Structures are given as structure tokens and as C-alpha cells.
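User: I'm putting together a small comparison set for a docking exercise, and I want a reference complex before I start. The sequence is below, and the ligand is zinc ion. Could you produce the 3D structure with the ligand included, as C-alpha cells?
Assistant: Of course. I'll restate your input first, then give the C-alpha cells for the complex.
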Amino acid sequence: MRPTVHVTTAGILTVVMARFVPVAEALGFFLASSLLDVDHFVYYAARFREMSLRKAMAYFESVMNVPRPCVCVCHTLEFVVGLGLLTLASSSRLLVACLAGVVVHLALDLGEAIAMDRLSYRWWSLLEYGWQMRKQCSIHCSRQS
Ligand SMILES: [Zn+2]
């Protein structure tokens, strides 16, 4: 999903939220919801050893129709569960707001994936990714021997 959609949605929800919660929590919600795609840039920078945001955005635009071009850690079930457990352990209202921001972001991404029939185009779980990579490796390795 385009960053502008995330920022706009988060902005609207933040304005509503700021009427009921402290500004710091509303800001935490906004930042978590708008900046979650930073994991895409981290992936791009690590893979291509390139720190250009513009090139990273062009890359992800070019692989939009390619199934599972990258593992975006912040977009996985394990990340959400980990953040949820951290939130529960800390009882921090700021972390609750951040978790809500992450959930809103992922709900938008999930809605788009369902609407465009691209649910399988993304790794939604690190465990699934590891399982599939292990399977591919064992097939590849058995062919070489
Ligand atoms: Zn996203």
C-alpha cells in the first residue's frame, strides 16, 4: 500500500484519538501506523547495500506483482505477537497505542491484499518463511548430490 494512504489514515485516526488520549499516545499511534513500512527500506538496504529511499520505493513498485519478493519483519504475525507480549508485560499505554497503530497498518495492508487477490504475495509469518526456505534448500541440495 502506498505510504500516503497509511499516513492519511493514521492522521485522521490520530486526530480523533487525540481528543481522548494524551498527545504522546496519539503520536505513538501515528508513528507506528505510518512508519511500519520502514522494514521494507531496511530489507532493501541490506540486500542491495544501497541507502536510497527513492530507489527502494522504485524497487518495491517494480516487484508489486512478484510473489513474496522480500521478508518484511514488521509485517509478520511474530512481530505483532512479540509487540503484544511486550505491551502486556510493560502495561505501557504508549505501547498499547503503538500496537494499535501497527494493527491498523497491517489491517490496511491485509485489506488491500485480499481486495487485489494477492494474499499469498507476502510472507505473513517468519515461521512459514523459514519452513519454505528449508524445504527449498533440501530440494535444491538433494538435486546437487
Ligand atoms: Zn505495510
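Residues 3-144 form one domain. The two ends are 42 Å apart (CA to CA).
User: Thanks, that's exactly what I needed.
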